[in-house]
Specification:
By secondary structure, this protein is α+β, with helices and mostly antiparallel strands. It has 3 helices and 7 strands, in the order E-H-E-E-E-E-E-H-H-E. A 5-stranded antiparallel sheet has the order 2-3-4-5-6, with helices on both faces. The chain has a two-stranded parallel ribbon with strand order 1-7. Strand 5 (106-119) and strand 6 (125-131) form a beta hairpin. The protein starts with a strand and ends with a strand.
Length: 182
């Protein structure tokens, strides 16, 4: 089922999420719905707060980046209760966008390597070292689980420049090709 995506300005995007356990109801259906919602909106990642749930769940499919970033190929994950164990590597710039902030794309600096721990949809634990586009997409979605959006990583001057666009999203004046709620 395709779910509406929460737009910038909604309070759920500013709340640190709660971990869940294997008693969470219908987790496989939720993950399937999150992937379907993400694909419908042409995204490569989606975090639960973006569908109005304050739980630590995210989905990623970096395959659309595989031509320019070969490490994106085959990187499709559902991650429950993810955490960053280590952040290292070099700072890299990359133009990011977000389904909750349609029409805004900005260059964001992030580390190009992270070591993460998470549970899959069967609640099996995984530890992975992510690099390049894998690390980038993960960190973007992980920020959502901590009440942050990518514009929080911009300079004050750059955010001030985006103020009208952000206010338009918050005031439901932006209408992307997918359903949004405020």
């Amino acid at each position: 089922m395709i779910l509406p995506i929460v737009g910038y300005g909604h309070s759920v995007l500013r709340i640190k999420t709660n971990d869940i356990d294997n008693s969470y109801p219908n987790i496989q259906q939720l993950i399937d719905d999150m992937f379907e919602t993400m694909y419908n909106a042409n995204g490569v990642g989606l975090a639960a707060p973006q569908i109005n749930l304050s739980i630590s769940v995210l989905v990623i499919d970096a395959n659309p980046f595989k031509e320019d970033y070969p490490e994106g190929e085959g990187f499709k994950r559902a991650m429950i209760n993810p955490e960053i164990l280590e952040t290292n590597g070099e700072d890299e710039k990359f133009e990011e966008g977000c389904l909750s902030l349609p029409g805004i794309n900005e260059v964001v600096i992030r580390k190009n390597k992270v070591k993460v721990r998470y549970f899959d949809e069967k609640f099996e634990e995984h530890i992975e070292e992510l690099y390049g586009i894998r690390a980038r997409v993960f960190q973007h979605e992980f920020d959502h689980l901590n009440g942050k959006v990518f514009t929080d990583r911009l300079s004050n001057m750059r955010r001030a420049f985006l103020k009208k666009k952000l206010n338009d999203i918050a005031n439901n004046k932006v209408h992307p090709a997918y359903k949004m709620i405020k």
